[in-house]
Amino acid sequence: MHLFINGWAAEARVWNSLHPGEDCRFFDFTAGVELEKLEKYMAALAKESGPLHVIGWSMGGMLALELAARHPEQMKRLTLLDSTARFTLTEHYAAGLPPAIVRQLARRVRRDFCQAQLNFYQQMFAPGEQTAAENFVKSGAMVQNTAALLAGLEYLEQRDLRGLLPDITLPVRVIHGAADAICPFSAGEYLAEHLPAAELICLPDCGHVPFYTQPELCRKLIFEGAGIDDQ
Hints:
Helices cover 42% and strands 14% of the residues. The protein has a single domain, classed as Rossmann fold. It has helices at residues 35-49, 59-70, 99-111, 113-124, 130-138, 146-158, 185-194, 210-213, 215-224, and strands at residues 2-5, 24-27, 52-57, 75-81, 172-177, 198-203. By secondary structure, it is an alpha/beta fold. It starts with a strand and ends in a 7-residue tail after the last helix. It contains 9 helices and 6 strands. A 6-stranded parallel β-sheet has the order 2-1-3-4-5-6, covered by helices on one side.
């Protein structure tokens, strides 16, 4: 079974571009970032079907890493889409955004959560992906819960998962857009370098949402396990 965990400012319907099958389950954070609830959900799925293939995008990838560190027996493999071990810059870690940008986004969410998400969506897409950006806005994936959006931003500003990576020995596929302005490609490189059993797949000229802009390729990479050279 495949468990999808989506990122900030999007409902689970964002995965519809992949045409997921009946063996797919979804968890989003439209009600808030609740790791304990996610743990219980994953445990129930694993009890039903055996160890899971967990796919996490952006913030969802960070939460997937936490699950892998806490409950490796419930996973068989992990796919990370444009994710990171730490979202914000800090000493000795340059693969993130300045914390001030996250705080500014939080202020915008408090003023107008719809406009804040629309502005964020524009940053998710590379210059050549503007048609996809327009379609994404029309997809209806926007989160309507201000508290959930703020909780997600707090998580992104504060969480540091770097110390967990060496102990996550599951097979991990890191898929990352080379033109990602939200989680820079260097964040994907860091994950691949510090996870013991990881492979990195770079998607040239791709922004933060590869499964939306290149759904057929990502479907193969996620579901069929094909490498980029096999396409």
